[in-house]
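Annotated sample (chain length 325).
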Amino acid sequence: MKTFPSQSSYLFAGAYTTARMFSLISENQIERLFGARNESEIMDALQDTFLAPYLASTSSINESLEKAVTQAKKDLISVSPDPDLLLPLWYKYDFYNIRNIIKGTLKGLSEEEILASCFETGMFTPKELFDAFTDGTLVAIHPFLHKVVEQAKSVKDSYEIDAIKNKEYFNGMAEFAKTTKNTFILSYITLLTDLFNLKTKLRLTKLKNVTQRDIFAHNGSIPYFVFESLSPRELFSRFGGSDYWDQALTEYENNSSFALVDKLSEEYIHSFLKRESMNLWSIAPQYAYFNAMKNNVQTVRAIIAGKNAGIPESELRINLRKIFR
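Output written by the structure step:
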């Protein structure tokens, strides 16, 4: 049986990633992006950020953003005493990719088109997943990804495929957390599961002919019978209080907009990670850094996309995530 490193062995990795936080985008740099009037000024603003080296190697901003995330993954793996404990950080990309492979195949898309829609940050490359899917050997590299493929064979609706993907994603993460016996990872995955269930419960208030039990992720902190009996507002209030979620829930109830709910969910996760990362003798600082890196990339991408789409700055600011550092 594998023996995991002691907590003290994470001191260097914790100090390293905490220091790297300060290289991420600042509020002032974000304001420069908001003030940019065209793509040329956006590029100039980004040259003063940690993204500059990636922009130098490609003319595509999106490609530069993906390279930054991929490099962050490589850096974390290189400094971690046990990179296997980082798997939950990459895990969701594999499930996202296998979902795209399944859906792309059903649509008759080419291999090139399918792979272009995938992320490079998973445990496996998109090409490895595509080949294993095509050859029927996925079970040999990851049983939970294989389960998604097998269950998806009996459904055709896109929403059903998503539900299967989500269920097996959380099943796989829960099993991984139990094998590590790492208290931080257990708490982190439990929190992700809880927030997923809360958002699913909220969506069900607008959906018809969907059985709650079929899409509820197990292994969260809220027993199913409690989850089933309480209203979305009662459930959300358990995570930060009712005032924290009030505006977001009202926005969803009135306009069916999930943007603020997603925003506050991410900020709640970040607050948890930031609090846990104060302990440099744990793996938490590595999780906090990667979460902050992803947040930076998503924020830059959202500002650029919003400007290109002509979205008013005031509207864009409302739904924009806080910058995590």
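Annotation: The first helix runs from residue 11 to 21.
Annotation: Residues 85 and 182 are 9 Å apart (CA to CA).
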